[in-house]
Amino acid sequence: MTLLGHDRAWSEWRSAMGGERMHHAWLLAGRKGLGKASFAQAAARELVGAGPDTGDHPDILTLTYGPKNKEEAKKRDDGKPFELARGIKVEQVREVQRRLTTRPTMGSRRAVIIDPSDDMEVGASNALLKSLEEPPAGTFFLLIAHNPARLLPTIRSRCRTLRFPSLAKEEMDRLLRELSPDTDIATRDAAIAAAAGSPGNALSFVALGLGQAGQLMRRIVETGDRDFSLRGQLASEIGMKQDIPRLQAILDLARAILAERIEQAGPDPRILVEKHAELVRLSAEQPTYNFDPGLLAMEIGTLLVSAGEASERANG
């Protein structure tokens, strides 16, 4: 099945496959949740001549997050839950490079998928660059990147880029109605706003049930919260559990709400931009610092109150 927004990428990929000399490295660029990983796996199967339902293929090597350390690796090997590393390590790249010294197993082509390539550690990026500069015969690289600017310029320059566009709100709404028909309007609207054109993110937000939280945050921006009652309700809605995916989704939704206000702002949106930047900072720090959910809700609410006041002044 071709996912929404993939038609142009498939056209470019298949045109290249049918040409005389296919580029050896491809950068699949776009927001997280657009289906780039699904495209990479399907494209790799076409490349090596594998059917869609034939299971793992020895000539498709996928490099992604591994265990955090040796202790977590042992848990993985024992079949137990294990913690993932924050990035792709140089040892992982070198292990793949050792496999590239042999010929493909079942044909003349091999695919290496790196997902996400923009989360490689510095040493891993430098090691990969050597393979991109002197690619083994018959080896093709597919680098998935949610934020291509984080890649080394020398890596980007050696790749042909396939761009995966974000979906329009109308497409997102239609997709959610099809895939999640029982979702209430408030949750669907919140998911569409927070996902910013990414269907994968939207479906994740729907699963987290963010409709009520979205409504509360919009009320805080629009009406203020002098007695802190709305912020208290927001804290209750978020809950006291350290649920990192849910907290990150709440932060994404708050950022989306402020982004809308910035678009509608008058001639001086600087304060709104500053509050949005504060939410971006909180989003980056949350996975590391594990903020108390209640305090985080209060900080988000206070930023939204300030943004609402600034929006009124800018338009007033």
UniProtKB/TrEMBL annotation:
<dbReference type="GO" id="GO:0009360">
    <property type="term" value="C:DNA polymerase III complex"/>
</dbReference>
<dbReference type="InterPro" id="IPR050238">
    <property type="entry name" value="DNA_Rep/Repair_Clamp_Loader"/>
</dbReference>
<dbReference type="InterPro" id="IPR027417">
    <property type="entry name" value="P-loop_NTPase"/>
</dbReference>
<dbReference type="Pfam" id="PF13177">
    <property type="entry name" value="DNA_pol3_delta2"/>
</dbReference>
<protein>
    <submittedName>
        <fullName>DNA polymerase III subunit delta</fullName>
    </submittedName>
</protein>
<dbReference type="GO" id="GO:0006261">
    <property type="term" value="P:DNA-templated DNA replication"/>
</dbReference>
